[in-house]
Amino acid sequence: MTATTKERPPALAEFTEWAGERYGELPALRAKGAGPVSYGRLRDRVREIGRGLMAAGVSPGDRIGILGETRVEWTYAHFAVLAVGGVVVPVYPTAGESEVAWVLGDSGARLVLCESAAQAKRVAGAAPGARTVLFDELGGLPRDSVPLDGFLARAASVRPDDLCSLVYTSGTTGPPKGCGLTHANFGAVLDGGAETIDGGPGDRTYLYLPLAHLLAQLIEFNTLLFGGELCYFGGRIEEVIGELAEVAPTHLPSVPRLFEKVHSVVLGLAESQEGGKERFQEAVRVGLLAAEGRLPDADRATYEAAEKSLYSLVRGAFGGRLRWALTGAAPIAPQTLDFLRACSVPVYEGYGMTESGGVISLNRPGAVRYGTVGQAYPGCEIRIAEEDGEVLARGPMVFAGYHGDTAATRQVLDADGWLHTGDLGCLDADGYLTLTGRKKDLIITSAGKNLAPAPIEHALQQSRYVSHAVLAGDRRPHPVALITLDAE
């Protein structure tokens, strides 16, 4: 890791000033089909937009919505709002009208930065009291009335305990709740990332996840913390694999579906050939032995043949330079992890939630136990509640509470600072966490049998023919599963 946690600014308001000074003309951001944006240029753009926001009347603590796809302008807007002491309110571009209205209304957003005129029109219909500014208009906001010194003084006045973002997360009941995250919460995650993510200038992170999602924002910060280059996808999800080969990232955050899709496609190609499935299984077997340093001489020829026919091609599909890939948000199929590990594609499974600042545990280089979601993230404590097996987490990254909902906050955050995740799990002797289900997801059949649906649903989804599976059976004689087929 190039950057150290002692060097970063205590609040993210000055992050681009720090990064611009430290990394200068190194590439920071890159959009598809465009040249790189340097760290110095990123700093200058944030200064320009930030001064424009101040001239437009944005005050410290104001809630500012951002509505758009993952693109360079989202990052400009993000850092500019933080620099002037605003509170970012991310809105998913796929959100329905009622969700847009709720998030903007509940947060009290007075200004929304939108990707397009179409998005601005949606905001006008859902939250008529909010002003909108298009991404393309941000650089043109009048700013002459705010000198650079005034902007820098505003950024320097932001404190670690100030609110940084209101990230809305859906619950099992009621409308989404706004999770209040402070600059200190984000800082704690960055500090942990400096210990767990190896990176530096010359490295590239490919980002296709929506920046409205907390994980994508954390990746954004971490990449720029260590001087890497953040490469944005072109906007078409079906082109992600092709773009990976083009970008050749060293770091890839993802959800399990991308990795499982690659596994499924390769397995399907193998099964279409006579004896292909058996050769595929043998390749995975010897690849795993090699990954564990236990490859016998008798299997070396098989391994070398698989290196040419399979392993190298799979690595090439990810660009050929990948050395750190993260999967989270949902369980990943064990067979997929085995396949990728056999091909020397390092994928690390982690666990977190918005209320925990996005992180609780993580597998990492040198500390991996497959089938678990890793050990506690640096700075985070984990324990298992004795009475029901619920996973509890505590640390400086845990959120400040739900916006405007003290009662809901008390339900998940106890007096000792432990976050009650609602997930069930167990810790082994070395502190690796295994998730076993959801506390409120138990199905009780009419015979009184308790069933955790998650493991059964996960098992059904191991078939490459199944895209989703949902188990039902509460108060019924036996459980049934609703399955959707994978059209591809």
TrEMBL record:
Keywords annotated in UniProt: ATP-binding, Ligase, Nucleotide-binding
CDD domains per UniProt: VL_LC_FACS_like
Entry GO CC: membrane
Residues of the AMP-dependent synthetase/ligase domain: 17-403
Keyword Transferase: no
E.C. numbers: 6.2.1.3
Pfam families associated with the record: AMP-binding, AMP-binding_C_3
PROSITE patterns: AMP_BINDING
Enzyme's top EC category: ligase
Gene Ontology terms for molecular function: ATP binding; long-chain fatty acid-CoA ligase activity
Gene3D superfamilies assigned: N-terminal domain of ligase-like
Family matches, as InterPro entries: AMP-binding_CS, AMP-dep_synth/lig_dom, ANL_N_sf
Protein name according to UniProt: Long-chain acyl-CoA synthetase
